[in-house]
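ARCHIVE CARD
Drawer: 12
Card no.: 0347
Subject: one protein chain, sequence and derived structure
Cross-reference: see card 0346
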Amino acid sequence: MKRILLTLAFILSISGIKAADITVITDAFKKGNASTLTAFMDAEVNMAIPGSSKKTNGSDAVAMLNTFFNSNKPGDFTVLHHADKKENGFFVAKLPTPSGEYRVNVTYRADGNKAIIQSIRIE
């Protein structure tokens, strides 16, 4: 009986947590279309891509990603690990391109069901 109550309590505790939807972000990386991320960028974004690393505003972060995608056309985008908490989350993915495979780390904060990007690291 105790085990049933603990299981029920656990199920009820996690059912109230809604994960932010990262589908738009992962689709943008898969297609190499950073422009679709404009509405998903935070006011300040920590960007680190090969050859550049800085804290910037959302529109400059999108421009940096577009520059990266122009030189590195994505072949695919696969999320390897994804963790979500109530207020924030992150995911790690691999991004194969003709010039090599990159590891992508994205952190975000949740705004309702929407993931707002706080940092992007491509290495």
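Annotation on reverse: The CA atoms of residues 81 and 110 lie 17 Å apart. Residues 2-15 form the longest helix (14 residues).
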